[in-house]
């Protein structure tokens, strides 16, 4: 079975005019300087932070959050949130639309992503992921127990881990069934009675005049062309995060029912906002 979701409708063609390429160059230069300049600062700070605090990271997550907040300013994208951040120990789960999710979810909350091991080998993105404390998961079943222990150690150290239970990204107009594998770690006796999970709905609004799935990244789309398309947009859209109330793991008898409920909450949040946006759009059409 494919590890990626694909649509029956092919991706929208990317057309970039002269002014679009100017924006690609200007935004790309500023964004690259922001990201990799702060990455250098983060790595230098880790030389001090790691010997003093070990697995804990009291300083460097602030740099990551600074970069992610300002990335949307560089892109010209709107960024808004609603709902209270979870204060309890545990994890965060969200629907997955694009590589932009990483900036959005880090901008509001200091978290550590859980990602497939292949990402660690990707040029650029892999370096960023490793330096910011990403937990890499191998799909090899023979390493399941080892990786569960790593997962538990990070949670017990107080890290807020974030993972995408869909297992792949979509067009942003749907939520795929949540895979339950990673939820098994929370059922262990050492975690079950102490952990919470907060669901988050990630909603993108496309630039005016563009398809609703403009920011979606799925199927065989490559990162480079999607990045260029995003940088080239003359009028950007926005991303909105809805933080739903966290759930206590021990209130659920098994991982399947816990995952199903989290999936339903995330889907309802997405559909509610997409429906509201559609009504606003229809209203504008009636008044034009």
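^ Assign residues to that structure.
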């Amino acid at each position: 079975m494919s590890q990626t979701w694909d649509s029956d409708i092919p991706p929208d063609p990317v057309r970039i005019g002269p002014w679009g390429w100017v924006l690609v160059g200007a935004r790309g230069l500023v964004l690259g300087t922001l990201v990799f300049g702060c990455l250098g600062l983060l790595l230098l700070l880790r030389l001090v932070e790691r010997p003093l605090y070990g697995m804990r990271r009291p300083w460097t997550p602030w740099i990551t959050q600074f970069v992610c907040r300002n990335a949307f300013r560089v892109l010209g994208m709107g960024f808004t949130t609603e709902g209270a951040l979870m204060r309890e120990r545990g994890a965060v789960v969200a629907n997955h639309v694009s590589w932009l999710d990483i900036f959005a979810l880090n901008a509001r909350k200091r978290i550590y992503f859980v990602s497939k091991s292949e990402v660690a080998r990707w040029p650029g993105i892999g370096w960023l992921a490793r330096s910011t404390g990403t937990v890499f998961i191998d799909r090899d079943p023979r390493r399941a127990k080892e990786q569960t222990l790593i997962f538990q150690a990070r949670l017990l150290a107080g890290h807020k881990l974030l993972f995408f239970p869909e297992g792949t990204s979509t067009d942003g107009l749907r939520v795929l069934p949540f895979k339950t594998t990673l939820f098994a770690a929370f059922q262990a006796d050492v975690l079950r009675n102490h952990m919470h999970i907060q669901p988050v709905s990630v909603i993108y609004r496309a630039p005016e005049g563009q398809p609703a799935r403009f920011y979606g990244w799925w199927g065989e789309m490559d990162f480079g062309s999607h990045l260029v398309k995003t940088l080239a947009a003359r009028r950007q859209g926005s991303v909105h995060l809805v933080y739903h109330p966290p759930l206590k793991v021990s209130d659920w008898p098994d991982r399947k029912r816990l995952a199903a409920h989290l999936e339903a909450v995330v889907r309802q949040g997405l559909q509610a906002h997409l429906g509201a946006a559609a009504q606003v759009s229809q209203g504008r059409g009636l008044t034009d």
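The first helix runs from residue 18 to 53.
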